[in-house]
Write a structure and sequence with these properties.
Helices cover 31% and strands 19% of the residues. It is of the alpha+beta class. The chain folds into 2 domains: 261 residues, DD-peptidase/beta-lactamase superfamily (Beta-lactamase), CATH 3.40.710.10; 127 residues, DD-peptidase/beta-lactamase superfamily (Beta-lactamase, 3-Layer(aba) Sandwich). The strands form 3 sheets. Strands 1, 2, 3, 4, 11, 12, 13, 14, 15 and 16 form a 10-stranded antiparallel sheet that branches. Strands 8-9-7-17 form a 4-stranded mixed sheet, with no helix packed on it. A hairpin with a 5-residue loop joins strand 15 and strand 16. Helix 3 packs across helix 8 and helix 3 crosses helix 9. The two termini are 36 Å apart.
């Protein structure tokens, strides 16, 4: 079902765009128009986006409102939640530790963390680091535990609460959820895999994951606008208001916290929430520019070695048509190409990042609307990237701004 927009939203969709360089405004306007259309069609208060080629991040921009109540405009400097795209960053850290000889892909979480940490978690005593990375561990996910949903995203959530790093593991211990499959035999997506990998990184390095993230991964690339919410200081004025699709499915599954309120027909304001419960499974905030710069650096062999990237993009079918999984990256079928990247959805945010398999184009789309547990009525940013018209507009803009590198 398509929701009715608040009248103020229909009346005036504001646009704020920063452009690195542009000689042809037609291509820029066409791309902007594609973002605005998506905003109107899918009730998105704002979209922040970026395009990069081997020449760097060549375009950033935002459309719509950062806050529907105050009518403050979105801009490209805002930090949006990127959800499960966080897993790509964690995977890169893990792969680098493997290359440095500090970790083996054939080790198990139990080997590294000790039996007491993984006690009662199905398959956690047997699943390897490789299987955690590519979601073939068979470990159940805490994200779909009924109690966690209500406490982490719904009626029983406490906005001011900061979750402990490993707290979510308690929701998959014991008999609550069986293993989904024997380790290595099939694909089953699980946030639990990356909670365990976060703990593994901290155990191997004897450092906090925030320190590893910034000092080892981001600072060498000159990136300062990617932050782990709840675990490091973040200027709240740089975060837009957070909204979530108000659907029958969301109310049934999660319920509404007393701290949330209806912002517009079909949209719940969940701005008082935070992403600490997600931690290394989905807790990062980022600007579109820095996320695009990281994605470009990953594609071009500046985050992990080319041979390591080849390992990460060794894809296998997930069982879903047009989708394959690697180690911290996915392979998604588009209308006339493939996207190598990741998408994410959490309470209050949705995002997608990746590069087209053919040509020279990196794209990032972020929105301050969440869709998890909202059912088929919700919209995902990956749906926009799957649009042939959108990809055509992005390619045209990239071609205009960096004609020597963009795909025709």
């Amino acid at each position: 079902m398509r929701y009715v927009f608040a009248s103020i939203y229909l009346a005036s969709l504001s646009i704020a765009v920063s452009v690195a360089q542009a000689d042809d405004h037609g291509a820029e306007e066409a791309f902007r128009a594609a973002l605005v259309r998506a905003s109107k069609q899918h009730q998105l208060p704002s979209i922040s986006a970026a395009i990069a080629t081997r020449q760097g991040v060549i375009w950033t921009g935002a459309v719509g409102y950062a806050n529907l109540e105050t009518h403050s405009r979105a801009n490209a400097a805002y930090l949006y939640g990127i959800g499960s795209i966080t897993k790509t960053f964690v995977a890169c850290i893990v792969e680098r530790l493997v290359d440095q000889g500090q970790l083996s892909l054939d080790a198990t979480a139990a080997n590294i963390l000790g039996p007491e940490v993984v006690a009662g978690i199905p398959n956690a005593d047997r699943a390897t680091i490789r299987q955690l990375l590519n979601h073939t561990s068979g470990i159940p996910t805490w994200e779909f535990d009924a109690e966690w949903i209500r406490k982490g995203r719904g009626a029983e959530s406490i906005p001011q609460r900061l979750w402990g790093k490993a707290e979510t593991l308690d929701y998959v211990r014991g008999s609550r959820h069986p293993a989904t499959n024997a380790p290595g035999t099939s694909y089953a997506y699980a946030n639990t895999n990356y909670t365990l990998l976060g703990l593994v990184v901290e155990k191997i390095t004897s450092r906090d994951i925030v320190d590893v993230l910034h000092n080892d991964l981001l600072e060498p690339l000159g990136l300062a606008d990617i932050r782990l919410e709840g675990f490091e200081p973040i200027d709240p004025s740089r975060i837009p208001a957070r909204y979530h699709y108000d659907t029958t499915e969301f109310r049934r599954t999660a319920g509404l916290s007393p701290a949330f309120h209806l912002a517009a027909p079909g949209l719940i304001d969940v701005s008082r929430s935070n992403l600490s419960t997600e931690w290394t499974a989905g807790g990062l905030l980022a600007t579109a520019r820095d996320l695009a710069a990281f994605t470009l650096a990953l594609r071009d062999g500046r985050v992990v070695a080319p041979a390591t990237l080849a390992r990460m993009v060794s894809f296998a079918p997930t069982g879903e048509a047009g989708e394959e999984v690697g180690q911290g990256l996915f392979h998604e079928r588009l209308a006339d190409d493939w996207l190598i990247g990741y998408d994410g959805g959490v309470l209050g945010f949705g995002a997608v990042m990746g590069w087209l398999e053919h040509g020279d184009l990196v794209v990032v789309i972020m929105t301050n609307v969440g869709m998890m547990h909202a059912g088929n009525d919700a919209w995902y940013p990956l749906q926009l990237v799957r649009s042939k018209a959108f990809v055509r507009a992005a390619r045209r803009l990239a071609l205009e701004l960096s004609p020597r590198s963009a795909a025709p």
